[in-house]
Amino acid sequence: MEKFTEVMSVAAPLPLINIDTDMIIPKQFLKTIKRSGLGKNLFDEMRYDQSGNEIGDFVLNQAKYKNTNILIAGDNFGCGSSREHAPWALLDFGIRAVISTSFADIFYNNCFKNGILPIILPKKERDLLMDDALKGSNSILTVNLENQEIKRPDGSIITFDVDQFKKKCLLNGLDDIELTMKKFDKIKSFEDSYFLKFPWLGQ
Amino acid sequence: MLECKTLYDKIWEDHLITEDNDGTSLLYVDRHLVHEVTSPQAFEGLRISNRTVRSPEKTIAVPDHNVPTTLDRAEGISNKESRIQVEALDKNAIDFGINYYPVNDIRQGIVHIIGPEQGWTLPGMTIVCGDSHTATHGAFGALAHGIGTSEVEHVLATQTLIQKKSKNMKVEVNGTLGLGVTAKDVTLSIIGETGTAGGTGHVIEYAGSVISNLSVEGRMTVCNMAIEGGARAGLIAPDQKTFDYIKGRPHAPKGSNWEMAINSWKQLYSDNGSRFDKLVVIDGNSIAPVVTWGTSPEDVLPINEIIPNPNDFDVQKKQAVERSLNYMGLIPGQKLEDVKIDTVFIGSCTNGRIEDLRDVAKIMEGKKVKEGIRAMIVPGSGLVREQAEEEGIAQKLKEAGFEWRLAGCSMCLAMNPDQLSPEERCAATSNRNFEGRQGRGGRTHLMSPAMAAAAAITGHLTDVRNLI
Ligand code: SF4
Questions:
Q1: Beta bridge partners of B306
Q2: CATH class of A6-172
Q3: CB contact, 8 Å: B313 with chain A?
Q4: Rounded to an integer, what distance in angstroms lies between the CA atom of residue B294 and that of residue B44?
Q5: B440 to chain A: which residues are within 8 Å by CB?
Q6: Min Cα separation B37/chain A (Å)
Q7: Separation CA A83–CA B437 (nearest Å)
Q8: Can you give the residue ranges of every domain in chain A?
Q9: Which among B429, B427, B395 has a CA at the least distance from the CA of B409?
Q10: Which of chain B's residues have a Cβ under 8 Å away from the Cβ of A181?
Q11: Which atom of ligand 1 lies at the shortest distance from residue B132's CA?
């Protein structure tokens, strides 16, 4: 997993609430057996018309936002299906941080496992960043994970909370499975007493 | 004094292997269900890092999302990408030695239907699957939730999951349901009340007389949509009905194990006086047959209402409502019952079980699907299909004008050939009405199987109570 330390970029505003994972990556793109290459279909139905041409109005089609690494989103971002294709598509497009007032649980967790930092802020602060994002090209945000800070274009700082375990994994690009496999003896002894208590589950 | 524990607390504690200071915990996983869409990258990950599946006997795989539901699928899947995904699962199941129900096995079906059907789903378990509707299994008093593909890989490799404990939420539905009101109306009405983010960060326990009076299948319908209410999992305390449902299923405990299991399952309830972080109480007597009008499952109204006006909502929701009415091609003030439909879809893990098909058959008794309406029934599993055929339901429904399909997710999501065309309007028994969910530009109204049958008869959204 790619490490996340600091990301500096123009942020793209997506004020719509309840953006679900079907909107982030429609199901016709879930037929892949790979993780990469989904960026071109990110927000596909909002981004392209029926004949596959870019819809100029859509935020990620505008020149100033095409290379963005940060999304500022409306409430309850990432609800719906658990597909990890959603963060894969965001990552493949280049998004490394998503900022909103709330995220759906599964999407939120999936982000961390793919090197994307989802940040939850109170509405007032998210709205300030939304205004910054709407200003476009010269309005650069800097997201720093170590300090848990977002620097706004005017130099002011917004701080955010993050789970310390998730932070450590993201900062170091650590793989969960490796960490858990180090605990195999604990799992083994758990199983021993567990199956004594619930023998019908041991099969 | 003894500490009062909720059902969720009890299951959590039974499965806790380690817990760090910040609450990050390692949980043991009893059953891992796998389907073709969210697993290939996980198996690929195992191969790349030279890992194996730690407990193949606790891992159960079935293809469902991609498979065509027409009879010709026995000859192979024509869509190349779908075929590759299903073949990848065939291969992964063999290579890693996991339990498998391939496309042409009579037991194949939607993953959340076959888990309970085969007795893999038992009370007190932890069950995970790379699919958000894993919440369905909570109807048995199992802690069941969806996980992402990285977590699928983690569970395959370690039979554990890294989790933090959620908060406890209780949804109590009291009273009795009126005529024509079903589990689907209950679960949709709950979401209408709490909103799609109402359960975020919580595990919901459903309780109250309405819930305990529901059949086990009805309870599955309720828990299935816990995810639409924002919760990762829904739970219902198991009772005698649950035990009766499980007994004798292929993977249910047998002999002395059965006695032991029952005794243990009887402890699975929230202690009197246990504390919930959030409580919602709903009067079951006031629940009417409902439909959704928008593109979020919270856009629910009783069938005899009118399409709402965006101005009646707060600023943020107003924008979403304008967008969804535009997408749905609906006008504020229009009567819901006047909305004409093109298609009826009966199936999915929400309502693809035998009782759902019986409900449809009952409403269709002596009636026909209105001319010009495309109507299809997709049983949730090969065994549900077989049972409906044995009961004579299949024949009746075919005569009434329904297409009778093979098992799969079908038109619940547009990943297989069953899709809506742009602006095609569908009365659906599935669980999601998101934009494009059933096909690009397709318009979905969620409802119960009985309500979908009523719509099939009249050709518009219809109050089923007028047909009973
Ligand atoms: S029936 Fe629909 S909701 Fe259920 S598992 Fe299949 S696609 Fe998902």
A1: B335
A2: alpha beta
A3: no
A4: 39
A5: 26, 45, 50
A6: 7
A7: 14
A8: 6-172
A9: B429
A10: 157-158
A11: 8
B1 pLDDT band, cuts 50/70/90, is low
Closest CA to B188 of B442, B409, B445: B445
Distance between first and last Cα of chain B:
53
Q: pTM here?
A: 0.90
Number of residues written out for chain B:
468
Which among B40, B166, B20 is positioned nearest to A180, based on CA atoms? B20
As a residue count, chain A comes to 203
> Distances in Å between the alpha carbon of B7 and those of B2, B238, B270?
15, 10, 4
CA–CA distance, A156 with A109 (Å, rounded to integer)? 29
Strands B343-346, B425-428: pairing kind: parallel
What confidence tens digit (pLDDT) does each residue in B129-181 have?
A: 999 999 999 999 999 999 989 999 999 999 999 999 999 999 999 999 999 99
Residue B33, strand partner residues: B60, B129
Long-range contacts from A152-156, C-beta under 8 angstroms, 24+ separation:
A152/A128
Beta bridge partners of A73: A14
Q: CB-based contacts of A185: which residues, under 8 Å, 6+ apart?
A: none
Distances (CA, A) of B384 to B61, B109, B117, B465: 18, 9, 9, 27
Q: Which amino acid is at B103?
A: V
- Tell the residue number behind the tokens 């949804």, with chain if given: B171
